[in-house]
Structure prediction request, 185 residues.
Amino acid sequence: MLLIFHSFFITLYGMKRIILIGFMGSGKSTLGKKLASRLSVPFIDSDTEIEKEYNKSIGELFGEYGESHFREIEAHFIQSLNGRDSFVLATGGGMPCFHSNMSLLNNLGTTFYLERSPKELMNRLINAKQKRPLVSGLSEEDLLSFIENKLNEREEYYKKASIVLSREEQTVDAMERFTLLLHPQ
Prediction:
C-alpha cells in the first residue's frame, strides 16, 4: 500500500519542492532526510550548502560578515533553487524571518512549519549546544529564555507556512497527505 501511495504521489507531482521551516532543533533535517528518501528526491540543508559554498561554518560567516549580510546570503540561496525541480529543503531557523524570504519560500514550494514548544526545543538543544553557536554557553534557564524570546519574534513568519504541523503531525506520512490535500489534481 505504501509503495502504491508513494508512486501516486510521484506521478501526481512531477515537481516536488517541500520546504521545512522551524526553530533550531525542531527536527527539520531529521524529518527532511526521511521524507526525501521516501520521495526519492534530493535532500538539501540550507546551512550545509551555504557552508560548502563559502568554505566557512555558519558561526564564522556570522562573525566575519555580520547577521545582515548572512541573511542576504540566505535570500540568494533561496533564489538559486528556482531552477531545481524536486527536493526537500531544511532551512536555517532564522531564514524565513528576514527580507522577503518567507514569501520566496512559499512561492518556491510547499512550506511546513514544524511547531514545537519552547521546553521541548530546550530539551532537544541541551545536548547539541556545542554545535549551535547562538546557544553555546547558555545555562538551561538562559536557553529557555532565549528560545521563548526568539520564538516570539519568529512565530509570525513561521505561521505563514503552507501547513503548520503540531508535534503529532510531524511524520512523513502526514506530510504526504497534507501536500496532496493542498495540491489536488
About this structure: Confidence is low (pLDDT under 50) at residues 1-13.
